[in-house]
Specification:
CATH topology: Methane Monooxygenase Hydroxylase, Chain G, domain 1
Number of strands: 0
Number of domains: 1
Helix content: over 70%
CATH class: Mainly Alpha
Strand content: under 5%
Oligomer: single chain
Structural class: mainly alpha
Number of helices: 7
Order of helices and strands: HHHHHHH
CATH superfamily: Phosphate transport system protein phou homolog 2, domain 2
Shape: globular
């Protein structure tokens, strides 16, 4: 089996940077979960800002390292694809958070906890998948993790549709329905971004196995 260790040589820095990027995405997902269950949102938004700043710095650093490193660990396009896909997770989460803090008072009684927990699980699977790159491309393990992400994404799709019947049946305020719909879709999109990372990792494993 082809070994990523051989590809990286002295480029272990790419392992570390990608792992840090995945962890920053998980921190954003964890902060989002806290956001929807806590009444004091100011500390949570501060955590978002920290995680987002960290992700931006890592995204930039990985790009700079690609320019400055003669021999790269993976094909450059694969590193760039991972870097880009990881960057989009906290970006999507931040978009949800910014909108949620504005409209949360109008959405009391709508449960976002289950969706936030699902997103946090998805981000944790992403951390595991990026961690597998350091371990020699075990395709069975990576496939199992990708299948987990696909299952979580399917559950996110189900949760996207589930509340609409209730909201419409209750004759809710149309604005309330529209705001909830927008946030549900942002949740589902963030889970999709986690799945996208999983697909990139899996394609790398297939290509190098």
């Amino acid at each position: 089996m082809f070994s990523l260790q051989t590809m990286f040589g002295k480029g272990d820095k790419f392992y570390g940077l990608l792992e840090e990027s995945a962890e920053a995405a998980r921190e954003s997902a964890r902060a989002l979960h806290e956001l929807v269950i806590q009444t004091d949102r100011a500390p949570v938004m501060a955590a978002f800002s920290t995680a987002r700043a960290r992700e931006k710095a890592l995204h930039r650093q990985i790009g700079e390292e690609l320019v400055n490193t003669f021999v790269t660990a993976l094909d450059r396009e694969d590193i760039e694809a991972l870097n880009s896909a990881l960057y989009k997770i906290p970006k999507s989460i931040e978009k949800f958070a910014e909108r949620y803090v504005i409209v949360a008072d109008r959405l009391q009684g709508i449960d976002f906890d289950q969706r936030a927990a699902l997103l946090e699980k998805s981000a944790s699977v992403v951390v595991d998948m990026i961690g597998e790159l350091r371990k020699g491309l075990k395709i069975d393990r990576v496939k199992k993790l990708r299948d987990s992400l696909n299952a979580l994404e399917s559950e996110a799709d189900r949760l996207l549709l589930e509340p609409y019947r209730t909201l419409y049946a209750e004759g809710s305020d149309p604005l309330r329905v529209m705001l909830a719909k927008d946030l549900f879709e942002l949740f589902e999109k963030a889970v999709d971004k986690c799945r996208d990372v999983g697909n990139v990792v899996y394609s790398i494993v297939l290509k190098n196995s």
